[in-house]
Amino acid sequence: MSTVRGARERARIEVTAAIKDEARRMLAAEGAAKLSLRAVARELGMVSSALYRYFPSRDELLTALIVDAYDSVGAAAERAEAAARADPPRARWLAICEAFRSWALAHPHEYALIYGSPVPGYSAPLDTVGPASRVGNTLIAVVRTAYEGRGLALPPLPDSLRPEAVRMTADFAEGLPPEVTAALVVAWAQLAGMVSFELFGQFNRVVEDRAGLFTHVAGQLAQGVGLPAV
Amino acid sequence: MSTVRGARERARIEVTAAIKDEARRMLAAEGAAKLSLRAVARELGMVSSALYRYFPSRDELLTALIVDAYDSVGAAAERAEAAARADPPRARWLAICEAFRSWALAHPHEYALIYGSPVPGYSAPLDTVGPASRVGNTLIAVVRTAYEGRGLALPPLPDSLRPEAVRMTADFAEGLPPEVTAALVVAWAQLAGMVSFELFGQFNRVVEDRAGLFTHVAGQLAQGVGLPAV
DNA sequence: GTCTATAACGAGATAGAC
DNA sequence: GTCTATCTCGTTATAGAC
User: Fold this and answer.
1) Which partner for B92 in A104, B65, B84, B169 could form a disulfide, CB atoms 3.0-4.6 Å apart?
2) Which CATH class is domain A66-224?
3) CA of B69 to C1' of D6 (A)
4) Is the CB of B37 less than 7 A from some atom of nucleic acid strand D?
5) Which residue among B115, B157, B200 sits closest to A202, beta carbon to beta carbon?
6) How far are the Cα atoms of A110, A218, B20, B65 from residue B17, in angstroms, in the given order?
7) Closest nucleotide to B36's CA, by C1' atom?
8) Domain ranges in chain A?
9) pLDDT category, A4, cuts 50, 70, 90?
10) Structural contact between residues B196 and A192, judged by C-beta atoms closer than 8 angstroms
């Protein structure tokens, strides 16, 4: 019986993957707003009702795609960091940044799904919160090791922002100085801002050397979180 | 005859505006991907073919909405700058930044239309290029007056980025030092990055005091383009 | 000339009976 | 799981009102 169940489970995993693959292809062609279970089923030669055995609703399929995308970019960031583990923190920071951009360029539609405009009528469940923070956590980890024991050389926060920075630190960057936490959040928004501008066309007719500008910015941000060049 | 033509033209303008208003309402409800000429016509009590007297295609209606959105945010930025005309450049810079964010919060769907994920199957025509640059031009103008005749105190660009910065300067910021042009582009991406993260939900469960963080960043960016605090 | 309405096309989605 | 009848869509051709 266990082999039968094993086979069944394997089949289920394969079909689930096939559904998500097809849905991703549709995402690229039509956008998330038009993702329809029926079209996915048709493309797979299934009947739409059969899909509901794998995903109880269109929104749950969307959630699965979003979680996969977050996991994919998170894994890319973690891989880049691991490959640079022997390097100084600044190099690891830069490696993560470049990995983030590379992933986005390689998966533009999945990037749009998670960092672009929200899908109308869809509201993300809590399942996405964990995977969504993997890239950020990788950046935090690098900065944390750099600060271990050492002091920091960041300009002080304005008083008005300090409580918020303290709260954020307690929430997801415990042990770091609040100035660094705030700088991290800002850096993270800037990274995505650069990539979004590049991917969403805002750099068309404006910036040609996007890779060069991005690398430049990544270095500035490293500086901003306390990882100076030398 | 001129009154007749006047009346006709007035009617035409009114109908055109009504179509765009209804389309904007649909944009908010369903997203740009699902914008449909027929639904707009139905809602207005017209027949779909009648819309073609006003917009030759669905894509041209989308283009009109995009141009309107760019003009709306551009006008908001210019208004903010004009209202702060007597203030020092840094205050004018901050006013533009705040106006940008305020506009985005007040018009989230139009913001998503122009700064969010591209609409699948739609490619923006050249008509959008001019309006798209109004906010940026306003920022450039403020920095330009600040630099008139005076020197600058920005860190030098890496050699690898200098040619690109020189090219960008010639293209849309003539007369500014290339370091400033590069910093302007980066600042612009960061502004939109902050607003996008706020509007698109990336700050959920992360940043509470979004206004405070944004103002803080706007100040840092002013510094970055050479408009220091005192 | 300017507009609206009717009708139609080909393509695709959808709901429900079977 | 299948089939069909009935929607929607963008777009065009055409005819007639103003």
Assistant:
1) B84
2) mainly alpha
3) 38
4) yes
5) B115
6) 35, 44, 5, 10
7) D9
8) 1-56, 66-224
9) low
10) yes
